[in-house]
Amino acid sequence: MDRTIRDLAERPTPAAAREWLRRHDGDVLAWQRAIAEIPAPTGAEEARGAFLAERFAALGLEDVRRDEAGNVFGRLGPPQAEGVGVVLAAHLDTVFAPETDHTVREVDGRLVAPGICDNARGLAALLAVAAALRHAGAAPARPLTFVATTGEEGAGDLKGVKHLFEDPAFVPDAFVAVDGAGTDRVVHRALGSRRLRAVYRGPGGHSWAAFGVANPAHAVGFAASGVARMPLPPTPRSAASVVRIGGGSGLNTIPQEAWLELDLRSESENALEAMYVGATQAFVKALDTVNRQCAAGTPSLTLEIVPLGTRPSGVTNVSHRLVRSAVAATRLVGHTPELAAASTDASVAIARGVPGIALGGGGRGGDPHLPSEWYDNTGGPDGLYRLLLVALAATEIPPGA
């Protein structure tokens, strides 16, 4: 086990913080329930952000504020210290519409509600770590900046954390994202993505009387087939998925417009670029195929490719002290570390050259992004303690190490 983590765990402050987490587990679960019951679809996180800001202030964090993107900040550390130090972040938004029933139910010992793990648990973990450290009188070597971010999910395209890094003064020494439940995974590889929509437009018409005009829906079919046949690199793992198709206005009408949306993913920027080129070539080939088949003298289809989002890829090396600390802390609480790749708020930090990882907030969860999402608090305090140890250890890593 990493000696740094073992020594850290033997100090009075982390021990006192761990005891607080054990004794106040019910309070943490109450925060988690309260957060989950506040609707926070991407782009409408204000109410949930206000709750976090109130709690940050009540816990005694300094410099509690919100920025133009809706991110919520709190700070713990030496008042005279400059910079943000180590960032502990969790996203505010969910994939669920505001009219979704967000009531938390208890079923067979589990909490069940939309977003109860992703990311009510992550946000409750921020509050738990801040509260435990305040109770223990922690004086971290460098500041700990707590951030509840906006726009992490789907079309949010990591909006909140991207906004953070637009500020030249925002230069973290390390970045730890807290996303969902769990005490095993250490996400140190950023899973990049490119998302785009291909829109085909044509004259349309009656499906019998106008048959022979270029059909946008046929072009979508050819395009989807072309994407499915695209060769993908054997390593690193990559994926090209048509995720949505739409268009048309009736059963007896050739559509004037049809479209598909594509999600490209890889841990490699070079692989993403190659897949993007291959996909756009498939779109253009589909356009050409349908236009060559249309009746003489009829209008051709047009193609518009619309970017929907870009998420960066990258890696924090397994030899970096941040990753080693997370692995050691996982073992310290009796779990087996699993090194993994995912798209999280930490991805932006990693892509900017900042040491970054993502961890779960303890316990176990299932059915992510479904109304039946559930959380089981077995081992929950251990996961929070792991997170606390990693955060404290990160404040002691020399900048640039």
Explain what you see.
The chain is an alpha+beta fold. The protein has two domains: 3-191 and 313-395, Zn peptidases (Aminopeptidase), CATH 3.40.630; 192-311, Alpha-Beta Plaits. It has eleven helices and 19 strands. Helix 3 packs antiparallel against helix 5 (120-135). The longest helix has 25 residues, at 269-293. The mean pLDDT is 96.
Give a brief description.
This protein is about 35% helix and about 25% strand. By secondary structure, it is an alpha+beta fold.
Number of domains: 2
Please state the overall shape, judged from the principal axes of the Cα atoms: elongated
Q: Which CATH first-tier class of the largest domain would you pick?
A: Alpha Beta
If helices are DSSP runs of H or I spanning 4 or more residues, what is the number of helices?
11
Per CATH, the architecture of the largest domain is 3-Layer(aba) Sandwich
Beta content: 15-25%
CATH homologous superfamily identity of the largest domain: Zn peptidases
What is the first-to-last residue Cα distance?
Answer: 20 Å
Major sheet attributes? 6 strands, mixed
Sequence of secondary-structure elements: HHHHEEEEEHEHEEEEHEEEHEEHEHEEEH
* CATH fold group of the largest domain: Aminopeptidase
Read across the widest sheet, the strand sequence of neighbours is 1-2-6-3-7-17
Structural class: alpha+beta
The share of residues in helices is: 25-40%
Radius of gyration: 24 Å
Number of DSSP E strands: 19
- Can you give the mean pLDDT? 96
Catalogue the unreliable spans.
none
